[in-house]
Design the sequence.
């Protein structure tokens, strides 16, 4: 705990001292958290849209709680995960897929009934579930994917700044629990926020793929089959 606090103090001291790399990492983390929290809320709302009001509210609540728990679990595992050879490369590929999915959503690939509780979920093209069990299961599966996306993206953006990384994960949890619906509304109203977030995630994905190959400690080149 003392070591973690030391990283936080060191990284945020760098922010106040005008460290360009620390500010870049912090800015990327905030944008990633904002966009993915809103995306999470929009997907959950679209999946629950076909249910009666009482069941819909329960599914949305399940989605928010599951997202909170999963982000905390993945955050606790992230330091260990990022130390596995090849995982940064795999995470970069996953984020490329996330970028493609976000691009399609931003382009309004289809219409959905939308849930009244969530603003901005009417243009996802996601088919609403017709049963409580089906909606709850679909939301749980989506939450696993989106929570892992969030944690990997933050870890990739702030890998060299562990203090910013951990604070960014705390912010991700807070945004999902408190402000996800508000964020979804503003992302729908101001589309440029989503485009900037998409560009940042794409940049982090390419950076992770590159580092996942050449990193001297956990890159693919450390494996004998790649390194010769």
Sequence:
């Amino acid at each position: 705990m003392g070591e973690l606090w030391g990283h936080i103090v060191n990284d945020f001291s760098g922010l106040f001292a005008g460290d360009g790399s620390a500010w870049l990492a912090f800015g990327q983390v905030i944008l990633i958290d904002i966009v993915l929290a809103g995306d999470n809320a929009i997907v959950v709302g679209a999946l629950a849209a076909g249910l009666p009001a009482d069941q819909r509210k329960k599914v949305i609540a399940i989605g928010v709680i599951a997202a909170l728990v999963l982000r905390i679990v993945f955050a606790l595992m992230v330091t260990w995960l990022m130390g596995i050879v090849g995982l940064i490369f795999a995470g970069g590929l996953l984020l490329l897929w996330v970028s493609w999915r976000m691009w399609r959503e931003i382009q309004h690939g289809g219409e959905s009934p939308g849930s009244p509780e969530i603003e901005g979920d009417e243009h996802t093209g996601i088919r609403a579930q017709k049963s409580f069990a089906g909606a709850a299961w679909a939301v749980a599966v989506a939450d696993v994917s989106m929570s892992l996306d969030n944690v990997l993206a933050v870890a990739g953006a702030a890998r060299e700044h562990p203090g910013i990384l951990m604070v960014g994960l705390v912010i991700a949890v807070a945004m999902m629990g408190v402000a996800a619906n508000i964020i979804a509304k503003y992302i729908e109203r101001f589309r440029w926020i989503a485009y900037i977030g998409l560009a940042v995630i794409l940049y982090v994905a390419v950076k992770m793929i590159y580092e996942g190959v050449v990193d001297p400690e956990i890159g693919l080149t450390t494996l004998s089959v790649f390194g010769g």
Q: What stands out?
A: The two ends are 40 Å apart (CA to CA). The mean pLDDT is 79. Residues 27-227 form one domain. Helices lie at 2-16, 20-48, 53-81, 87-106, 132-157, 162-189, 191-214, 224-227.
